[in-house]
Design a protein that fits this description.
Largest sheet: 8 strands, mixed
Number of domains: 1
Number of helices: 4
Strand content: 25-35%
Shape: globular
Strand order of the largest sheet: 1-2-3-4-5-6-8-7
Helix content: 25-40%
CATH class: Alpha Beta
Low-confidence stretches: none
Distance between the termini: 33 Å
Number of strands: 8
């Protein structure tokens, strides 16, 4: 299952992708600064079967449709919980930042989440000092809902009232 946005294909990460990243293999469709540290963490979790998604709730590699180049990763950190909340994460190779790609990928994940009738909210965590990641979430319509002094919790809900819009 591929999630398509205006410029991107979000393609599920396969075990072979994770193994290649972890072994240091370079694939011809990866930009030169991919995978990032975050991609390697996700690859390790996939290789260890620590994150087992189902349906759309999986890890994705972010691919620029025009070039076919893999430029980052995003996805769900598991299925929705009992309250209908699902966590997302995202990251881009440094050479690809600043072009609205992360926001586009996040919007794609949110739209995909809404296709599951049980999802009531999508959330993400950022380090308190990570202004660029917080800006991505703001542009995607998320609002900050909590802080533990180090990490901020951002959320967007299916219901506009949850988002402070109603």
């Amino acid at each position: 299952m591929i999630v398509r946005t205006a410029r991107l294909d979000l393609v599920p990460v396969e075990l072979s992708d994770a193994s290649a990243a972890l072994s240091g293999e370079r694939r011809s469709d990866w930009v030169s600064d991919y995978p990032t540290e975050g991609d390697l963490v996700i690859a390790g979790l996939i290789a260890d079967n620590a994150i087992l998604g189902t349906g759309a709730f999986v890890a994705y590699k972010i691919t620029l449709r025009a070039s076919g180049q893999v430029i980052g990763g995003c996805g769900f950190l598991g299925p929705p919980d009992a309250t209908g909340a699902v966590e997302i994460g995202y990251g881009l190779a440094p050479s690809q930042r600043g072009n609205g790609i992360a926001t586009e990928a996040v919007n794609g994940l949110v739209e995909e989440a809404w296709k599951d009738g049980g999802v009531k909210s999508v959330f993400a965590l950022t380090d308190e000092v990570n202004g660029p990641s917080q800006a991505v979430l703001r542009r995607a319509g998320f609002r900050q809902v909590d802080s533990d002094g180090e990490r901020l919790r951002w959320e967007i809900g299916r219901d506009p009232q949850i988002n402070g819009q109603g």
